[in-house]
């Protein structure tokens, strides 16, 4: 499967999280501990929103860098991470479940101001693919450039109103996948942790049809982090709003990382973050 | 647009046609003369059927080598061409018309024993894509791995019976594209030269809705070639059945290369080759 | 050969020069007008110094992005250029003169705070290579990661004191190449336009043994540019210190672009820029 | 480090050894068991000598295919292996010890009819590199295209007469490395298993300065293999001369795979193979 990381908070250099932690995302590309595979070597991607502090005229759309080689040896990624500062970024390392290793299959995916990344899979995707493509809003279909289930899920959600109401749209996407799977007699339709953002807020989802979802963790509040890592100069200067969400913790879990509960989603935003059950949205979507 | 070459005849090393001629396909990747662009640097591919003479137990399915870099600098292609001998091979250099430069968008495409390559484009493909995807035989749709019009045309034709009757299936594919374009008010729907093969025979098509099709040439009979190039050791030993079909000639045209007429197709096979009008097949397909 | 661009001045988005001008560097990758080849498709690179306005804690070393595919199709480069703002950057598109197409052969090259890029060639480089490697400061030799003459020239110059006195070090490098060539009986030893920088100043050189050097142009003062392009919002807001140096102009030459004279070099810096003859430095180096 | 495989015997399809065995070389790219790392994802290469049975006019020089992506996802390698038949081939999966991931750093390396591949490292290579480059036969130095210790070792050996007397040349190379390391105070200079061939014979070496060399195994005689794998159609038809040499066994070791003893080399050839101590050659080289 894959591993991902989403960051929201004080602008920091990407490599503070991609390279420097003990069990950084790049380390996870070789030695993931909580995934089905230890190895995530089938491509890497980062998407970042510009740091607008002190600059004017910058574009507000996110930037993408995606590469098909393994993350651990990517010299461009290393330089980029050491020079790009962002208040909101996504990073993803891929372990292909069968679809080709190509740039258009690397996460994050982008649509206008929106980013999307996914860990997991649609069961029997090859069999369900056509019906799911037909369920995509017709005007959006030609924008699908790769061949992954993840990008298709993104475009389903976009068509279901992701830009207006992310939890409702993601719930409708989940129901669409599960109904299509049911029609084909495919059990355990969906396995997913997903992150999406418009540059202002960030939504993270943990869900699977079988209620045995891939792991997902969010960071403790920054004050606690600061006490846990008193010697880390970055931790001590972060804004209290700062939040990190990851497939697996970047270091010792105790006190620093909390699990997103099964079938829940979080909203990371200015002001109080939220952690909510998906169930009401799924119930509404099924109606 | 693109340039391609199809070879049928005595087993020869690929580089006899890819590298050695004065205006070889690799030379055309930098300096095409008859295309819309002089440059075809967005990927390269070769597909070859094994040379079964003297070997047993070899697979009969064609092999593919496809690479996203420009053909002129591909060291793997150069070595492969200098070492692989084949009695039937396709080679293609790509100039993207907008779809991503990735391996799954490189020609030739393969389905079982069948190869397919294309030069040209479907007009307003982005707009027509969804309707055309829906017209693909449902069981075949998930096999589409890239995002080109060319691969979609191949899968339309496969669903229309390419493996049984290539000219009829290609004619139905053409009609499908033209009808879909008409429905959307898109003029000049299709521009194509196409080659396809099952390893036994080879079909080449030249067609465009506007009847101003891209160039396509076939080689004169081998005896004439031998007289034209008396010093070429390869030309003098080729089987009389040998035929080369190309987007543009590999050298001086005079006496060596004949144009495939507008809206026609050729069948290259053991015994007499054929050159026939597409019109009757199109008329049948429209019924 | 190659084409390059060096920018010094008000922080701007890279794509203002890489993509937007009529005859931008990316356009030159397909359609160069003044080079030996029209095609520069063997890799691309950008090196940029961080924009320190409004940010603190940023690294002061330059960042590199180098890719082996053609510049015109590089989606990562396009996104990077649309999001990275820099007051001093280099960009280079490569046409290999025989050395492999690989990331370590792409320009710019970096050593600490220094960047270097080159258009041209050392004559009979294969023959002279060993003697030139021996002339590199021993401690620097293992830092050479690729196989180009350009990177070797950079390391020769570094060993000759590039970081203390760029014109003197470049002159010594030139003499070293010319003396080595003379020893081997190789005429017309060197052909070069070179740019180098430490992030504060920028030096550009135009030289060839035969005094028929590749073209090199610098932009007119910004006020004149502003009058020439009254509708360009970027041109009108640039700092008067701003200077662009290019292998070939990015648009109509008249009034906007001045040729660097044969065997001269320029210093682009805060305050008055300088344009000086290389001759005195060469004379000193030969002593 | 790396893993490699060398095959000599009846012409077989490459995928019989690269993909089909339980613990094939491609499987080892993800899950090596006896290496320092389990992961060999920094490039892959195969070199093969043509199968001349039944064909004439084929080139006698070996072909190379080398790619920088991980072996497990390389679609070109998979197709090549399923279609290329060879009586003598090398395959190598790379785990970089610091040098860049690029095609010219992938094994095998080639010089005329000769192939070379290596697992291991020269200690403190960065420090010793210059002196070792100086020890390369001057005319050969410019042929070094990459930056690995392995390619440098090959060129040292070539200069020391590899093409005339491989064991003597390899012994001189070893002494050169060890003497250079001693001069610099570097302990445990060399760690290597090496395979080299001219297309007629194949030499394999196992050596390390500290006498704790990487593993190396050769296959039992073909009759025993046939009894061990009675159901394998390929094993039962192999010529008795057939021999496989591998960094780690392709399946259960018992009865099928024998370790090359420390500081020994083997000669695989028509007629009786040989397994000999390196010591006498090293003693002679040191004189």
Please specify the SSE layout and strand pairing.
Four copies of one chain form a homotetramer.
Chain A: E1 3-13, H1 15-18, H2 25-31, E2 44-49, E3 63-67, H3 75-83, E4 85-93, E5 109-111, E6 114-122, H4 125-135, H5 149-159, H6 166-183, E7 190-197, E8 202-208, E9 217-219, H7 222-228, E10 243-246, E11 257-259, E12 264-268, E13 274-277, H8 279-286
Antiparallel strand pairs in A: 1-4, 1-10, 2-3, 2-4, 5-6, 6-7, 7-8, 8-12, 9-10, 9-11, 12-13
N to C succession of SSEs of chain A: EHHEEHEEEHHHEEEHEEEEH
Per CATH, the architecture of chain A is 4-Layer Sandwich
Return residue spans of chain A where pLDDT drops below 50 for at least 5 consecutive residues.
none
Tell me about the largest β-sheet of chain A.
7 strands, antiparallel
Q: Kindly identify the CATH topology of chain A.
A: Glutamine Phosphoribosylpyrophosphate, subunit 1, domain 1
Helix coverage percent of residues of chain A?
Answer: 25-40%
CATH C-level of chain A? Alpha Beta
Radius of gyration of chain A: 18 Å
Note the overall shape of chain A.
Answer: globular
Counting copies of identical and different chains, the oligomeric state is: homotetramer
The number of helical runs of chain A is 8
Please provide the count of β strands of chain A. 13
């Amino acid at each position: 499967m894959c591993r991902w990381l989403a960051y929201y908070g004080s602008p920091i250099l990407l490599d503070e999280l991609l390279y420097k932690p003990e069990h950084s995302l790049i380390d996870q590309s070789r030695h993931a501990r909580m995934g089905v595979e230890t190895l995530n070597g089938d491509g890497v991607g980062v998407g970042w929103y510009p740091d607008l502090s002190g600059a004017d005229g910058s574009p507000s759309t996110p930037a993408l860098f995606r590469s098909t080689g393994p993350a651990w040896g990517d010299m461009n990624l290393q330089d980029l991470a050491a020079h790009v500062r962002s208040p909101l970024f996504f990073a993803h390392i891929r372990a292909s479940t069968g679809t080709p290793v190509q740039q258009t299959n690397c996460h994050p995916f982008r649509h206008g101001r929106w980013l999307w990344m996914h860990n997991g899979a649609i069961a029997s995707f090859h069999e369900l693919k056509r019906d799911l493509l037909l369920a995509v809003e017709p005007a959006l279909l030609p924008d699908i450039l790769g061949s992954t289930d993840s990008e298709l899920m993104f475009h389903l959600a976009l068509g279901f109103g992701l830009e207006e109401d992310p939890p409702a749209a993601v719930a409708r996407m989940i129901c669409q996948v599960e109904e299509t799977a049911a029609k084909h007699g495919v059990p355990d339709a969906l396995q997913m942790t997903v992150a999406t953002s418009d540059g202002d807020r960030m939504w993270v989802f943990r869900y699977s049809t079988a209620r045995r979802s891939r792991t997902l963790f969010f960071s403790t509040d920054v004050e606690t982090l600061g006490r846990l890592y008193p010697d880390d100069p970055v931790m001590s200067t972060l804004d209290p709003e700062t939040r990190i969400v990851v497939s697996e913790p970047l270091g010792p879990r105790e006190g620093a990382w909390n699990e997103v509960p099964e079938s829940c989603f979080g909203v990371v935003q200015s002001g109080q973050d939220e952690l909510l059950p998906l169930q009401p949205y799924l119930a509404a979507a099924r109606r």
